[in-house]
Specification:
Strand content: 15-25%
Keywords: Magnesium, Metal-binding, Nucleotidyltransferase, Transferase
Number of domains: 2
Family: Belongs to the glucose-1-phosphate thymidylyltransferase family.
Order of helices and strands: EEEHEHEHHEEHEEEEHHEEHHHH
CATH topology of the largest domain: Spore Coat Polysaccharide Biosynthesis Protein SpsA, Chain A
GO molecular function: glucose-1-phosphate thymidylyltransferase activity; metal ion binding
CATH superfamily of the largest domain: Spore Coat Polysaccharide Biosynthesis Protein SpsA, Chain A
Number of helices: 11
Function: Catalyzes the formation of dTDP-glucose, from dTTP and glucose 1-phosphate, as well as its pyrophosphorolysis.
Radius of gyration: 18 Å
Helix content: 25-40%
Distance between the termini: 32 Å
Largest sheet: 7 strands, mixed
CATH architecture of the largest domain: Alpha-Beta Complex
Protein name: Glucose-1-phosphate thymidylyltransferase
Strand order of the largest sheet: 5-4-1-6-11-8-12
CATH class of the largest domain: Alpha Beta
Length: about 290
């Protein structure tokens, strides 16, 4: 399975912060926002990853992340010239995807919780063995801002509606999607919505109507943070700060995950960060001494 991070758009809700830089390069406490979705893909044991962003911002992402070898992964890049929907990322990435299954994650989504990696690996297995798509539902107080999934009495998903005026449930579909390889042909059948976008909800509904969609709910003990507004960006920073200060462990530390996955050695990490300074790199140095 391959991975895609969609880090495009103009971040208008975060102006003036994003007038000169991508939203996904803004800091969330002690690391750039893009570290968090990248770490999620790495926890899902995905090593071939395409990052999609604007022509203006791609050089900055390349400067930050390089080819991914420092983290034991293969990173490549593609341009999104205009934000025309989340599903557009799959069209842009079709040559990269090739004959593989794929996981798409939004560059401003942060996931955290005990057992997260197990859910990610389980989702990957469902796609690979059952040829089903997998999305995640998370209970939120303002579901009307998102695609909303509703369930029948048995807990089976029965509908997904994009930004409904009257939500049928409190479960938002979060920005993390696992698809079998046929997602490319399904995406090519989509037509732009009234707002001129290829809607990810329309794509998910294709799988739902074919009984090929699995919806996993993220319950108590899991955190999903969508950092698209000034308030939510501050909340995400405070959340990461609180967890890291209380536990002494980092969230979204790419080097730590790469080491845990045995993708890089302690010596490789030590060599890579030899000239780096700051608390983040001090943490990594402590890991390499254990």
């Amino acid at each position: 399975m391959k991975g895609i991070i969609l880090a495009g758009g103009s971040g208008t809700r975060l102006h003036p912060l994003t007038l000169a830089i991508s939203k996904q390069l803004l800091p969330v406490y002690d690391k750039p926002m893009v570290y968090y979705p990248l770490s999620t893909l790495m926890l899902a044991d995905i090593r071939e990853i395409l990052l999609i962003s604007t022509p203006r911002d791609l050089p900055l992402f390349k400067s930050l992340l390089g080819d991914g070898s420092s983290f034991g992964i293969q990173l490549s890049y593609a341009e999104q010239f205009a934000p025309e929907g989340i599903a557009q990322a799959l069209i842009i990435a079709q040559d990269f995807i090739g004959e593989s299954d794929v996981c798409l994650i939004l560059g401003d989504n942060i996931f955290y919780g005990n057992g997260l990696q197990a859910k990610l690996l389980q989702s990957k297995e469902i796609v690979e063995k059952e040829n089903q798509a997998v999305v995640f539902g998370y209970s939120t107080k303002d579901p009307q801002r998102y695609g909303v999934v509703s369930f029948d009495k048995s807990g089976k998903a029965v509908s997904i509606v994009e930004k409904p005026a009257i939500p049928q449930s409190n479960y938002a579909v979060v920005g993390l999607y696992f698809y079998p390889n046929n997602v490319i042909q399904h995406t090519k059948t989509l037509t732009p919505s009234d707002r001129g976008e290829l809607e990810i909800t329309d794509l998910n509904n294709i799988y739902l109507k074919q009984s090929q969609l699995s919806v996993t709910t993220l319950g108590r003990g899991f955190a999903w943070l969508d950092t698209g507004t000034h308030e939510s960006l501050v909340e995400a920073t405070e959340f990461v700060k609180t967890v890291e200060k209380r536990t002494g462990l980092k969230i979204g530390c790419l080097e730590e995950i790469a080491l845990f996955q045995n993708w890089v050695s302690k010596k490789q990490i030590s060599d890579n960060i030899a000239d780096m300074k700051g608390e983040y790199y001090d943490y990594i140095r402590q890991i390499t001494l254990k």
